[in-house]
Design brief:
Elements (H helix, E strand, L loop, with lengths): L1 H18 L22 H4 L5 E6 L13 E4 L4 E4 H6 L2 E8 L3 E3 L2 E3 L2 E7 L2
Antiparallel strand pairs: 1-2, 1-7, 2-3, 4-7, 5-6
C-alpha cells in the first residue's frame, strides 16, 4: 500500500515537472504579503520566479487525490490545493515524500513541495 502511494505521488510529481519545467536563474525571492503587497492575493500577485516551500496540512493517505491535497505555504501566508496553486501560475519543482506515520489508527505520509511562480 505504501508503495502504491509513493508510486502515485512520484508519477504525479513527474507529470507536473515535465509539463511545467522552467528555465532561468535559480534563486529564491522573498515574498512579504503584508508589507509590499498589502490587499493583494499572494497566490496570484506574487512576482514571477518567486520560489517557496509548502508543507501538507495533513498526512497524505491512500485513496486521496493529490490534486486536492491541501498545502500550507507560510511565506505566502496561504493554504491551497495543488489545483489552486497550478491555476494561480505556480509549478512544482520538487516534492519530498516522508516516511509513513501512524496517528490515531490512521496511516499516512507527510508531503512537502517546493514551488515556483511561472506566470
Amino acid at each position: 500500500m505504501i508503495r502504491r502511494i509513493l508510486i502515485l505521488a512520484s508519477s504525479l510529481a513527474v507529470l507536473f515537472l515535465a509539463a511545467c519545467s522552467t528555465t532561468g536563474d535559480s534563486y529564491r525571492q522573498a515574498f512579504i504579503p503584508h508589507v509590499d503587497r498589502a490587499g493583494l492575493d499572494p497566490l496570484i500577485d506574487s512576482p514571477v520566479r518567486t520560489q517557496t516551500e509548502c508543507k501538507g496540512v495533513e498526512l497524505f493517505s491512500a485513496g486521496e487525490k493529490l490534486a486536492g491535497f491541501k498545502f500550507e505555504c507560510p511565506d505566502l501566508d496561504v493554504k491551497a490545493t495543488l489545483n489552486e496553486l497550478r491555476d494561480a501560475g505556480w509549478r512544482i519543482e520538487k516534492m519530498n515524500i516522508g516516511k509513513q506515520v501512524v496517528e490515531s489508527n490512521e496511516s499516512g505520509t507527510p508531503l512537502s513541495i517546493q514551488i515556483r511562480k511561472v506566470y
